[in-house]
Specification:
alpha/beta, Rossmann fold, seven-stranded mixed sheet, six-stranded mixed sheet, 14 helices, globular
């Protein structure tokens, strides 16, 4: 245990948040030819640093291997597209960007967000390490660098005369094993009066609502406002505003600038968020020690529900093939003895199988054809959107199962 070090402050990691056992990489979807080959499982053991309170996983696989052929495409969620389109409008209105301001997005995926800034006439640049995903953005006419972001790339872009006036990233801060290098790179690339916005799932919501399935190897860190503020401060950046959103089960968007820039006043929301986390106990190690018990209770509840349904001779299908779903299914031991198949709108996942559980993935049309009695929604954070899309299951008295934050049948 003593050889494990915090990726931010370097302290020894001795405190466990939760040990979810062994699991495959959550985005390592299998082809039919791979089903009878060996499959690699890694420890899914989450630690909390007793010094700085950063919650984190060890790095067992390199980001290069994880993101080599990435299966997540942001554009397949309508509600997410609505969210980022509103972001582009809000940013332009709030900060009154002139049309010569350079917008840079880190982990720009398939161009889901930058396409809206492009429509407005802004110069844009995407940075995306997954080549297969970046190609989709380039096809949309969005200039994209296929690379991992950090100090090295930031220095190269700066030397090339590029400085970001708006530097943004959605759901990327948790994905980097060297978070110090990543944030230091943002400080280098940011223009003197530039703005950083970062969105990330909020640790407080993860713990309050038992969102353990958001723990998987692709997520190296699990972030509170408190720890993000510490990391940014350590690299010459200050957070001047923060907002809460319902996306991804509950996220924060932070606004930051250079620490010595006085153009943006720190809002009341920053102090409010500090107080909110302190009252929750975010800097109290004892608060973290009860999390595992809550997750075991949730696991037992879900299994009891599924067993009762199967004993009645009913059929269950899954909806979605998200990374979080693979954590849930593997930890709970849910395989094809419970779920016959799952469906997903992403054609890059259709025809493949979920890692570990080997549940087949089909297009959503499969639900209309098979008429299952129950549909387990794996991306529960999109339950409203999915229940509208698949509302036709009511025609045969089908019902939805929501696994988190508590098991519900709707």
């Amino acid at each position: 245990m003593s050889d494990k070090k915090c990726r931010f402050c370097g302290s020894a990691l001795t405190e466990t948040l939760i040990d979810l056992g062994m699991a495959p990489l959550s985005n390592s979807y299998l082809s039919i030819e791979q089903l009878n080959s060996k499959e690699v499982f890694y420890p899914l053991h989450t630690y909390v640093c007793s010094n700085c309170f950063l919650v984190q996983l060890e790095e067992f696989e390199s980001p290069g291997a994880i993101f080599n052929d990435y299966a997540y495409f942001s554009s397949f969620s309508d509600s997410w597209l609505e969210h980022v389109k509103k972001y582009t409008n809000d940013m332009q209105q709030r900060f009154d960007f002139s049309k010569n301001k350079l917008i840079v997005e880190i982990a720009s995926n398939d161009g889901y967000l930058l396409q809206y800034f492009k429509e407005k006439g802004f110069p844009i640049l995407g940075i995306e390490p997954a080549e297969n995903v970046a190609k989709m953005a380039i096809k949309k006419g969005i200039p994209t660098i296929v690379d991992f972001f950090g100090e090295r790339l930031a220095k190269a872009l700066k030397a090339d005369g590029q400085k970001a006036d708006l530097l943004l990233g959605n759901n990327v801060l948790a994905h980097v094993p060297n978070i110090n290098d990543f944030v230091a790179g943002m400080c280098i690339l940011l223009n003197d009066d530039g703005i950083i916005t970062m969105e990330f799932p909020h640790l407080l919501r993860l713990m309050k609502e038992r969102q353990f399935d958001t723990i998987y190897h692709e997520h190296f860190s699990y972030l509170s406002f408190s720890i993000v503020e510490k990391i940014f401060n350590a690299h010459g950046l200050k957070i001047f505003d923060v907002e809460e959103f319902s996306t991804h089960g509950g996220s924060l968007r932070i606004y930051a600038c250079h620490a010595n820039y006085l153009g943006y006043k720190v809002t009341k929301q920053v102090e409010n968020m500090r107080i909110k986390e302190i009252e929750f106990g975010i800097n109290n190690i004892e608060m973290y020690q009860f999390f595992a018990d809550k997750i075991r209770e949730l696991k037992f509840s879900l299994l009891e529900t599924l067993i009762a349904i199967k004993k009645q001779g009913k059929t269950i299908a899954g909806y979605g093939a998200p990374a979080k779903g693979n954590t849930l299914l593997n930890y709970c031991g849910i395989r094809t003895d419970f779920i016959d198949y799952t469906v997903d709108r992403n054609p890059h996942k259709q025809g493949k199988f979920l890692p570990g559980t080997h549940i087949p993935i089909f297009s959503p049309q499969k639900i209309k054809e098979e008429k299952p009695d129950y549909v387990l929604i794996l991306p529960w954070n999109l339950k409203k959107e999915i229940m509208e899309q698949v509302g036709y299951i009511r025609e045969w008295d089908g019902r939805f199962i929501i696994p988190i934050p508590k098991v519900e049948i709707i």
